[in-house]
Amino acid sequence: MRLLSHEGYERLTLSKVASRARASKSTIYRRWPTKEHLVIEAFKRWPALVPRNTGSLLSDLLNLYRQSLRILYRPPSSALMPILIAERARNPNLVAVFDPVMQRRREPVRIVLRRAIERGELPARVDIDLAVDALMGAVYLRMYFVEGDLSIAGIRKVFAVLLRGLGARGY
């Protein structure tokens, strides 16, 4: 992960990884047949997000956001997501290994939304995947593409607007 954050995806090679790890290239290739597989394996080692159940949809979403911040803004992780997003857009090999990892990152948000439906906080008709896209998309848009308030208070406002649009009770 450190090598990727310093070299960037384009200049990262398995030879450089082998050298940094003080291992032979064949040892690296035995475990990871391509650079994409190695990068995604490193990404999989990021701590999992743990969905809490506080009884409040907004609190549960903000808790996931806080966990994400602790992961994403800790070097070298802070540089990796933009690198992977950019490379995924142009590298079909990375799509196949990156997308399942992202689906696992989305699952805690799905769990939080399902619990909110069970509590009656969200209507049963809510399209969970579309809601996940809206919630995570708004956060990633602010993190990587536009200037925006990333404080807890700022994201609370974003989530409140989205929850109102989803028909959440009390917003």
**CATH fold title of the domain at 49-165:** Tetracycline Repressor, domain 2
Q: In this structure, how is the largest beta sheet organized?
A: none
CATH class of the domain at 49-165: Mainly Alpha
Mean pLDDT: 89
Helix content estimate? over 70%
Full CATH superfamily name of the domain at 49-165: Tetracycline Repressor, domain 2
- Helices and strands, in order, run as HHHHHHHHH
Termini separation comes to: 40 Å
CA-atom Rg in angstroms: 18 Å
What amount of the residues lies in strands? under 5%
| Total count of helical runs of at least 4 residues | 9
| Name of the CATH architecture of the domain at 49-165 | Orthogonal Bundle
Enumerate the spans where pLDDT stays under 50 for 5 or more consecutive residues. Answer: none
Structural class estimated from helices and strands = mainly alpha
Overview of the molecule:
Helix 4 (35-44) runs parallel beside helix 7 (92-119), helix 6 (77-90) crosses helix 7 and helix 8 (128-144) packs antiparallel against helix 9 (152-165). The longest helix is centred in the middle third of the chain and has 28 residues, at 92-119. This protein has helices at residues 2-11, 14-21, 25-31, 35-44, 57-72, 77-90, 92-119, 128-144, 152-165. By secondary structure, it is mostly helical. It is elongated and about 60 Å long. It has a domain at 49-165: Tetracycline Repressor, domain 2 (Orthogonal Bundle). Helix content is 73%, strand content 0%.
